[in-house]
């Protein structure tokens, strides 16, 4: 007759298990394991000994408020001779005696989250179960150690901002293993409306990374729920802070958790994407932030962005915009819900732009489906397809109320970028989203996408050609020239009107005030002739108009008097902030105090007041932001300089993220990679 093991006490062996399951950076004070991989706990018996084939133990694993076998949130299993990694199972790995080493394995498709495991009549343990990209049976499995180190374990990274001609790397502290962050991520899942409405079904859905990613896409913004971030794209950040204030996700997630799930103010696309990346990595889903330059926001799903300009070449604001850049995330998983061939990276976007199934969320959609023009696939394929592929049609509205089509060379979906594996370099992944412009495959894709609006770009060797050229160094605080270059590629003499203007701009395409303007009524060009027209941009004029994005939009409009043809050239330029220099003083070792000497030279022709440096870094600053204010203003050309002390807690390659803020120079970012010795 079977003899039930009488358990007196147990040891969860957290240090061994968490290290083995690569969750030890969360701490080793509680059991955190990954699904489909065995873990071992020690049981100490009150009476009797373990006898193979005689002793029995009923085990029940449960998650969620209404655990049920039907929903997969409850599993009952007993002792077996060997571990079966395809389902919940348990086996004893120690010889007969009063101490039992019990090896337990969860199913590789078990719902993630908090679990209670009941062992016989007297044993009851608690643990957290995560996705397991190291387990071939898990749908988030990734077969590359370097990629896993980057996309799951790396706690910091680079997000690309700026413009496609000048991508600017911005450091970010994802901090997914910092104290309390995993609990906050699980709380985000618990606060989602689907869970509040039907917790049994929602907890069951947590077995599926497609479902979890879709929930995160909705919950990182607060538009329909108690989500994490409030988005704002104006210059008014009253009641909160500018999105550029943030250096990482940790402070945002902690603020949301400590403020009774009130949304944190404010976020913009790269902040939404970075927070979604932190949560995904915390839960065990491989994830990365991507940036799409010249990103189209198509509101009516016709895959065409219609833009209207006035006779000065100035954009008339509309709902359909071309963002200078837009960030979203990609998560790695298989897609058993789709036909074969669409596993791997899936794009999902937590920035609230358009509703999907009645909620502000977007994705996940296979990146390959975008490339192949499979617009019927789940979820939100047409919207993401338009972001990287929409056509741009420009009309000029004239004073008499009529409008005419303008030849324009704006191409959407440029230099799609992400951080390289194992280095801070930019990896261009445009080829994963689209075939090369003009290739046979690209034309086939558009046919499939039912997209008949492709415009033939004006051929460079025909007619009149118009481009905008800029100098290599355009620093904030300097005066500099930009040029409209007109080339006459015809056999006849041409007489034209050239309007050349500039205005401040936000990264999402909304325009500010004029920074400089020129209207030349008689530009004469001989056959084959060229004319360079300079426009001077003075700091005294643009300095007070710039948004925090440091962007200026240049637009040149050329009217050929003989043919009445109108040509538009547009270029967005980013003004460079000064570089932050970081020197580490002392030998970088675990638990040894270090100093960072941080310097920035004031590039402006006016003093900087209220100067403040801030640093943070995963396993460097104890999950906190450390700030140091300067006592006096910093004059033109002078150095702002501080020393900030911090104590690293873990060895390895770490990123110290630095932010400088002041009255006239806001949120300049910098970083320093530091190798911490044991």
Can you tell me about this structure?
It contains 13 helices and 39 strands. It has 678 residues and is an alpha+beta fold. It has 4 domains: 3-130, Immunoglobulin-like; 146-448, Coagulation Factor XIII, Chain A, domain 2, CATH 3.90.260; 464-574, Immunoglobulin-like; 581-676, Sandwich (Immunoglobulin-like), CATH 2.60.40. Helix 3 crosses helix 7. The longest helix has 15 residues, at 269-283. The two termini are 54 Å apart. The model is unreliable at 452-461 (pLDDT under 50).
Topology:
Layout: E1 3-4, E2 6-11, H1 14-20, E3 32-34, E4 39-47, E5 55-56, E6 59-62, E7 74-77, E8 89-92, E9 99-105, E10 113-119, E11 123-130, H2 145-153, E12 156-163, E13 166-173, H3 181-190, H4 193-197, H5 199-205, H6 209-219, E14 229-231, H7 250-258, E15 264-267, H8 269-283, E16 287-297, E17 304-309, E18 315-316, E19 321-333, E20 344-348, E21 365-366, H9 367-372, H10 381-389, E22 391-397, E23 403-408, E24 414-419, E25 426-428, H11 430-433, H12 440-448, E26 464-470, E27 480-488, E28 494-505, E29 511-525, E30 530-537, H13 539-542, E31 551-560, E32 566-574, E33 581-585, E34 594-601, E35 612-616, E36 626-629, E37 639-646, E38 652-661, E39 668-676
Parallel strand pairs: 1-5, 3-11, 14-15, 17-22, 23-32
Antiparallel strand pairs: 2-4, 4-9, 6-7, 6-10, 8-9, 10-11, 12-13, 16-19, 16-24, 17-18, 19-20, 20-21, 22-23, 24-25, 26-27, 27-30, 28-29, 28-31, 31-32, 33-34, 34-37, 35-36, 35-38, 38-39
Helix pairs in contact: 3-7
């Amino acid at each position: 007759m079977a003899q039930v093991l009488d358990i007196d006490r147990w040891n969860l062996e957290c240090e061994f298990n968490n290290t083995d399951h690569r969750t030890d950076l969360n701490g080793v004070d509680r059991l955190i394991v990954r699904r489909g991989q065995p873990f071992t706990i020690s049981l100490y018996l009150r009476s009797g000994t373990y006898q193979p084939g005689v002793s029995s133990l009923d085990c029940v694993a449960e998650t969620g408020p209404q655990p049920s076998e039907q929903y997969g949130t409850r599993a009952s299993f007993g002792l077996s001779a060997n571990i079966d990694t395809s389902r919940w199972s348990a086996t004893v790995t120690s010889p007969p005696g009063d101490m039992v080493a019990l090896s337990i394995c969860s199913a590789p498709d078990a719902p993630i989250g908090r679990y209670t495991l009941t062992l016989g009549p007297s044993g009851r343990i608690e643990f957290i179960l995560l996705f397991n990209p190291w387990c071939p049976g898990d749908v988030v499995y990734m077969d590359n150690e370097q990629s896993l180190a980057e996309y799951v374990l790396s706690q910091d990274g680079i997000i690309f901002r700026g413009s496609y001609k000048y991508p600017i790397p911005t450091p970010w502290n994802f901090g997914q293993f910092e104290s309390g962050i995993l609990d906050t991520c699980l709380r985000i899942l618990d606060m989602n409306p689907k869970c509040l409405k039907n917790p049994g079904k929602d907890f069951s859905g947590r077995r599926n990374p497609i479902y979890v990613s879709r929930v995160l896409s909705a919950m990182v913004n607060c538009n329909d729920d108690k989500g994490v971030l409030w988005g704002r794209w104006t210059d008014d950040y009253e009641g909160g802070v500018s999105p550029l204030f943030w250096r990482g996700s940790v402070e945002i997630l902690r603020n949301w958790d400590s403020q009774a799930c009130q949304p944190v103010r404010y976020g913009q696309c790269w902040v939404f994407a970075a927070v979604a990346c932190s949560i995904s990595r915390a839960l065990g889903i491989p994830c990365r932030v991507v940036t799409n330059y010249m990103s189209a926001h198509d509101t009516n799903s016709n895959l065409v962005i219609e833009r209207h300009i006035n006779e000065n070449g100035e954009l008339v604001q509309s709902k359909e915009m071309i963002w200078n850049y837009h960030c979203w995330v990609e998560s790695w998983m298989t897609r058993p819900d789709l036909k074969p061939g669409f596993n791997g990276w899936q794009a999902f976007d937590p920035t609230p732009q358009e509703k999907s199934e009645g909620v502000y969320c977007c994705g996940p959609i296979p990146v390959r489906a975008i490339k192949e023009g499979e617009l019927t696939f789940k979820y939100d394929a047409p919207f993401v397809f338009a972001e990287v592929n929409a056509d741009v049609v420009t009309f000029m509205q004239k004073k008499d109320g009529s409008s005419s089509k303008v030849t324009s060379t704006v191409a959407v979906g440029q230099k799609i970028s992400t951080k390289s594996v194992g280095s801070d370099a930019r990896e261009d992944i445009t080829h994963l989203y689209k075939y090369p412009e003009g290739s046979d495959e690209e034309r086939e894709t558009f046919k499939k996408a039912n997209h008949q609006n492709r415009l033939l770009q004006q051929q460079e060797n025909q007619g009149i050609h118009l481009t905008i050229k800029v100098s290599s160094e355009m620093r904030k605080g300097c005066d500099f020239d930009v040029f409209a270059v007109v080339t006459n590629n015809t056999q006849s003499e041409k007489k034209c009107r050239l309007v050349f203007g500039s205005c401040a701009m936000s990264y999402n395409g909304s325009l500010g005030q004029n920074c400089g303007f020129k209207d030349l009524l008689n530009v004469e060009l001989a056959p084959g002739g060229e004319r360079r027209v300079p426009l001077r941009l003075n700091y005294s004029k643009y300095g007070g108009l710039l948004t925090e994005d440091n962007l200026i939009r240049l637009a040149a409009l050329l009217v050929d008097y003989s043919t009445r043809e109108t040509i538009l050239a547009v270029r967005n330029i980013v003004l460079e902030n000064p570089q932050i220099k970081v020197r580490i003083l002392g030998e970088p070792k675990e638990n040894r105090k270090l100093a960072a000497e941080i310097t920035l030279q004031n590039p402006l022709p006016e003093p900087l007041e209220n100067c403040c440096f801030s640093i943070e870094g995963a396993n460097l600053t104890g999950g906190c932001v450390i700030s140091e204010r300067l006592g006096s203003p910093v004059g033109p050309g002078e150095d702002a300089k501080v020393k900030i002390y911090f104590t690293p807690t873990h060895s390895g390659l770490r990123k110290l993220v630095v932010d400088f803020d002041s009255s006239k120079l806001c949120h300049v970012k910098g970083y320093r990679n530091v190798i911490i010795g044991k």
